[in-house]
Batch of 4 targets.
Target 1
Amino acid sequence: MPAHLSPVTAATAQWLTRSFPASGGALSAALCEIQARQAVTVAARLRYPTPMDAELMGLVGPGGAARLDGITGAAGLDTEPWRTWVDEVVASWAACLLADPALAARAVAALPPGPAEYHRLLSPDPTDTSSATLLRHPDLLSPVARLHQESLLARLGQLSTPAA
């Protein structure tokens, strides 16, 4: 993954785990974060498929979390600097992937081959699922997922939206 995407993926995964926190203790939080990072990584690789795309994003910036915060009801509550590195489209695409395992499988299949492992995104075990109950809840994710779902489906070459 290009270097410009590292702060974007870290900030976007952080936004997801703060907006849809883990249920339980430290292990649950770690498992929830892993799932968020895997979804965000897949979304970022789809959104910025070439080094040039990543370079351009690095020049113009990802946009920040302001609109996402407004949708989730957190507007104005958190002003930490890392939030400027959140990419709204990547967050929306990651929300789509977390809410729909079949779509996540299609997204991973669309990526160029590589050493990346997405097991917790694609095949969460019961501990993963219970740790990320909010992070994977389709109804809770839908306001964020709907923002850019059509562009994700277009990227994946699908003409119709998946059943909810």
Target 2
Amino acid sequence: MNAFVLAGGLSSRMGRDKALLEWRGRPLIEHALDKLRSLGFTPRILGVRPDLARFAPVIPDNIPARGPLGGIEAALSLTDADLNLFLPVDLPRLPVEFLRWMAARSAIADAAATIPWHSGHPQPLCAVYHRRLLAHISAALSQGDGKVMRVIAQAAQAEHMSIDNFQIEHVAAAQRSGSLPSEDWPHSPPAHTWFENLNTPADLARANGS
């Protein structure tokens, strides 16, 4: 399995580059990369971001201006692994142990994608994708379709593969009950904060105060 950080967003609501915003004294890009490195990965950064090359190798989009799906497509076009873990740069409170658990789940799911859902909404930018989806994603992007969930669903169907969806609330409940024993879990923040994106200055101020 390979791992990638999605860092190609325009950060329009934030008003400045999110990847270099400081959270707890360090840029968000460092937090994201460190999570993946702690799991034994050698992560790469996705996006047209030569300015981030000092943190890790950068993979630019093959098809520009297609949003996060363009980054996913670029990663799948270069990976040498069937399964590939993606983490957006703006989820600093997502526990490392959650990523470890999701990666392990994907290894036994035999699915085109392993996608968490939070409060009834999919989180397709923090997910695991099979490289068999590449050709279908590339075709969709070439036709101007950058909708992640729609394209992934169509690609999985074309490959006759399933999508493994799961609710993070169930994972959090298992963590609280002790069904997921790990020294990391007791120190993780409340589950409702795991997928709180830092999209605005108010989000950042709130996160730095927590």
Target 3
Amino acid sequence: MIDEHLAKLSAGQLRAEWRRLHKGTVTPKGLGRDLIARAIVWRKQARMEGGLTPAIQRTLDRFAIELVETGDIKLSAGLSLKPGTRLVRQWHGDIYQVQVLDQGFKFEERHFRSLTQIARKITGTAWSGPRFFGLKASPDARN
């Protein structure tokens, strides 16, 4: 429920309150009064209560990038790797190491968006990155 104070503000006053709470950023186009007021209430609550965890914020940032780049968001209940984690895989006698970053992965001093891109670079063929690095079972594996 929107607080009574916000319900009485004009659209211009709501946008001004948004700018104040969002360090001068402009209200996104297409947001109606109700959504602007709800976002203001959420922002105030987040300041008091602590807001989103860094992990949730990273996930939302990744979704935003994916939406802009592909026009879609792929939701998965997949594995969550913490930044700083090192993945190690031996392939044809060579050992490969990948570092998990806040957004993506570091392999051979280069940034990659996905493990699948790295698996393809290592093997030269189409592999599931999570499967290649042992994070996901093979489809024919039986429990």
Target 4
Amino acid sequence: MIDLGISKLALIGVVALVVIGPEKLPRVARTVGALLGKAQRYVAEVKAEVNRTIELEELKRMKESVEKTAREVETQVSATAADFEREWSQVTAGLEGSAASPAPDYSADLAAIGSPVYPEYKRPKKNFRLKRQAVPQWYKARAGVRRHALSGAARVARYRPRTLSR
């Protein structure tokens, strides 16, 4: 890059003062400053766009890796489920043929437990529905409830009779 020190900037300024003249120098300096600002903004926008593109590519790669992992997990789970079903059917195959012992009756145990006890409902001490803030805004607007106080000038401007224009 170009190394611009104080001495080089002073030399450029003196040459510009001699070549352009003292009358036009401020206008030229403003124009050059504006062009440099536009160039810097353009470079910043290009950098931001490149960064967004890179981040988008990284997100796409992460999405693909997550989808690949999800597919692998899904195949493992389905294989495990198939193994479980096969083993379950082998274990329960011997139980289906022998119906000598009836299933135990747990209804007496459930009746002894009883129903659950819930705490008694207590009504709140304040009736919160009577507060003005509990009324919805759409209901206030429909019923014509004033929500804001109007100043005298605002009231005159709002309720002034309309005159017919000629």
